[in-house]
Design a protein that fits this description.
262 residues; alpha/beta; TIM Barrel; 8-stranded parallel beta barrel; 11 helices; 8 strands; 15% strand; binds 3-methyl-2-oxobutanoic acid; binds sodium ion
Length: 262
């Protein structure tokens, strides 16, 4: 199987095939996710929360994003790798946005970038796409605007969401993430757009789905939003392994002779 491209994603939407996506932040997990046959891996700035243990995504820097993105691209054979542009890496000028987007491809080997916002960031999407860099848009609940939204809240303004979706498509986005919006609105947007929609907390009618890997695998024991289904309980498996190790060492049951050099 060959590398997934923007063209293969368009083709999947045309054929009504669901697009699968997850986040990953490092080499071993990206290996597992890529080997699963997934189409898209997002190196999300959610790493600020699930890897760095911060309150929200705002403090994540370009250097941190590039560091993690490079680990992920090194692991991926087929999945498209999307680098998530962190807060304040694309807001202050178009030059800054294009330079930083370019770094994801030049320095970290990503195939595309993602940035948050609708109509308000269309000039940025245009500038980045004009540089030959595939851009994924992200509308609805946009975590980098947590303070402006007054918290992580479901977004319900249908007219605004539809307008944002249409405008990011016109601006040249190859795909759009729909986060935290009611299912019927996501369905209407998905039908109205020619580019694939990737949903998270946006119901079943999107062209594809994405979740935060550490949430859906149950790696952390943090509170999970309503839309997350835990497909595994890695935290419990790891906790059990750690408990067994400590008990074995304390009782002198590890290492036995099979783990010794003679
Ligand atoms: O940072 C992230 O993980 C994201 C996805 C949840 C879409 O932006
Ligand atoms: Na993000």
């Amino acid at each position: 199987t060959s590398k997934i491209t923007t063209t293969s994603l368009f083709q999947m939407k045309k054929e009504g095939k669901k697009i699968t996506a997850l986040t990953a932040y490092d080499y071993p997990f990206a290996r597992m996710v890529d080997a699963s046959g997934i189409e898209m891996i997002l190196v999300g700035d959610s790493l600020g929360m699930v890897v760095q243990g911060k309150e929200n995504t705002l403090p994540v820097t370009m250097d941190e994003m590039l560091y993690h993105t490079a680990m992920v691209t090194r692991a991926c054979e087929t999945a498209m790798v999307v680098g998530d542009m962190p807060f304040m890496s694309y807001q202050s000028s178009l030059d800054q946005a294009v330079d930083n987007a370019g770094r994801f491809l030049k320095e970290a080997g990503a195939g595309a970038v993602k940035l948050e916002g609708g109509a308000d960031v269309c000039d940025v999407i245009k500038a980045v796409a004009s540089a030959g860099i595939p851009v994924q848009a992200h509308i609805g609940l946009t975590p980098q605007s947590v303070h402006q939204m007054g918290g992580f809240k479901v977004q319900r303004d249908e007219d605004r969401l539809m307008a944002d979706a249409m405008e990011v498509q016109s601006a040249g986005a190859f795909s759009v993430v729909l986060e935290g919006i009611p299912s019927p609105i996501a369905e209407k947007i998905t039908k109205a757009l020619t580019i694939p929609t990737i949903g998270i907390g946006a119901g079943a009618h999107c062209d594809g789905q994405i979740l935060v890997l550490h949430d859906m695998l149950g790696i952390n024991d943090r509170h999970l939003p309503k839309f997350v289904k835990k497909f595994a309980d890695v935290h419990a498996v790891a906790a059990k392994g750690l408990e067994d190790y400590l008990n074995a060492v304390r009782k002198g049951e590890f290492p036995t002779s099979e783990f010794e050099y003679k």
